[in-house]
Amino acid sequence: MAKPWRIVDSIDTDEGLLDLRQRGESDFLITIDSRVLMNSSANMSEIVLAELACEPLKDKKNTRVLVGGLGMGFTLKAALDNLPDDAEVVLAELNPIMVKWCQGPMAQLTARAVDDPRVKIVIDDVASVIRATAMKGKGESFDAIILDLYEGPCEMDQGRGEHLYGDMALEFSSSALKAGGVFAVWSEDPDKAFEKRLNSANFSVNRQRPGRGGRRHVVYIGTKKPRK
After folding, report:
1. How many domains does the chain have?
2. What CATH number is associated with residue 49?
3. What is the DSSP string of 186-204?
4. Separation CA 19–CA 79 (nearest Å)
5. What range defines the domain where residue 72 resides?
């Protein structure tokens, strides 16, 4: 008989109660308003997202990568595993409790990736970080931007993701990337309209669905094309 879930920690948010739940030693859930956001036993798409974004950067000097969304830390860990020792990873997380959980109860899941010396934590909306970088110019730009947010692009979101996945947001992301830079996005399901916007923002688009059978999430890898 499976052990019951217990609530380890909670915090009120605008969207409801955000809970960290644990079962046994290494099973974790993050829920909001009792809806499951993340499960420690289902992380393949997050890992593939970071691997595909960072694999071309393994041997590149002074790499800068932006990761938007910490979650349980699997995306961050996969990025670090595929980057050189002199890389800088800027982690933009809106809620500081996620950092606390990854440094505390969930630290074992990622070998304390959040405490890696290459990581710079910024408590802010990743859209704001991207916009600020785009305004600063080439000196602050990134080799890759990885967005692993619990609500990715969705045709039915009624504009809620506009600041991240809309036309202007994608232009900012393109401007915040170096030539040939990678814009990697996690999504629950395919979004044809988002793919068209990526193309319009000067990205080549590679869509993948990692895994076999069952519910398979979507990984978008956009590569910044040279301007004509």
Report:
1. 2
2. 3.40.50.150
3. EESS--HHHHHHHHHTTEE
4. 26
5. 43-224
